[in-house]
Amino acid sequence: MKIAVVGATGMVGNVMLEVLLERNLPITELILAASERSKGNKVDWNGKTYTVVGLQDAVNAKPEIAIFSAGGSVSLEWAPKFAEVGTTVIDNSSAWRMDKTKKLIVPEINASELTKEDKIIANPNCSTIQMVLALAPLHHNYGLKRLVISTYQSVTGTGVAAIKQLEDERAGIEGEKVYPYIIDKNCLPHGGDFYEDGYTSEEMKLVNETQKILRDDSIKVTATVVRVPVVGGHSESINVELHKPFDLETVKNQMGAMPGVTIQDDFKKNIYPMPIHAHGKDDVFVGRIRRDNSVENGLNLWVVSDNLRKGAATNAIQIAEYLIREKLI
Predict the structure, then answer these.
(1) Are residues 147 and 21 in the same domain?
(2) Mean pLDDT, to the nearest integer, of 319-326?
């Protein structure tokens, strides 16, 4: 099993290497690829030192699977080149997510849609992954009518430079800024690029990707994305309106039975999800589960997950595991 990691020197690429080691995939050859400026860099993995190669060299090696985390423009150019030589690409960028010919996969929900013909598979946005994993059993049992989402997104979602900005600000250092304002001791209601209607690209990902993964364009979704000075993971306040009546304890049990979901919900003991506890873990944590009495069949949830793990690297590698297990490569 020859596996390539494209974007191996980036933040998500590093986490992908950690998760590959933890999950013990049957790798016979690992190829680490990156842009020309990173070509030749050395990376230690599983007791061995690897030299980072260029993208064409990685294509020439014809790996069975290539896991991409190198940005949308790289994916648009290079994913088809890998696919042409028979490689199955799992892409973590936004490049292919809304392409009608490509599958958008959260393995616990819709991996069964995959076939041998799917040579470019899209990994959803981190905020979408954690949300739909919690909501999928509710949609199955009651039908999702409307979602109102507010996200509290970690600076790690922006990348290494954002973490550096936060650390510099906390240390009183004047350094490079990737956000238009200070992020330390602040909240920025600005994730992604603004569209003409005032919504951002990060907000619209939550709308469009949710409908695609759950295969239901009738779900009404509106979102506000906020960047917060947190490193451990993304948090989401989700107001859910269901089509059918529900019992609160039954809803908790249904979400808790979903693989990859952990319920942390005991307000009497101050037990609820927080990014400081989700950091470094693969699960999606759900708490503050309570009925919204202002609307018929309403529910409020607080959902937290490490955006670099289940929100990116782990989900991609779970897709690879499924492909291997089901002999789709």
Answers:
(1) no
(2) 98
